[in-house]
Amino acid sequence: MSRKIKLIWDFKGPNSLKIAEHHCIHLKEYVQLEKLHVYEIETTFVSEMYTIAYMIIDEKNIDTSRKALKPHRGQVAS
After folding, report:
1. How many other C-beta atoms are found inside a 10 Å radius of the C-beta of residue 62?
2. For the whole prediction, is pTM greater than 0.90?
3. Can you list the pairs that 62-68 forms with residues at least 24 positions away whose Cβ atoms lie under 8 Å?
4. 32-37 contacts: CB < 8 A, separation 24 or more?
5. Residue 33 pLDDT more than 90?
6. Where are the domains of the chain?
7. Is 35 exposed, middle or buried (0-12, 13-18, 19+ CB in 10 A)?
8. What is the DSSP string of 22-70?
9. CATH number of 4-73
10. What is the pLDDT of residue 78?
C-alpha cells in the first residue's frame, strides 16, 4: 500500500486566499493533463495574511509532480 503525500504551497499577503484558490485551478489542470489520481486539491485559510494550497497524491507520483509543480514543502498525509 502506497503512502499518501501532501504537497503544500504557502501564500502570504492580503490576497493569499484568492491566489491559493487560483493555484488550485492550475493544479487541477495539471492532474487532468497528466492523468494522475489525486485524493484532494484544496485550500486552507489560516489567517487574513496566510493561506495554504495543497494536493494529496500517492507517493509513487511524487518525483514527477514535485519537479513539475515545485511545492514549497511536503509531508506524509494522515
Report:
1. 16
2. yes
3. 62/5, 62/7, 64/34, 65/7, 65/30, 65/34, 65/36, 66/7, 68/30, 68/34
4. 34/64, 34/65, 34/68, 36/61, 36/65, 37/61
5. yes
6. 4-73
7. exposed
8. HHHHHHHHHHHHHT--EEEEEEEEEETTEEEEEEEEEGGGHHHHHHHH-
9. 3.30.70
10. 79
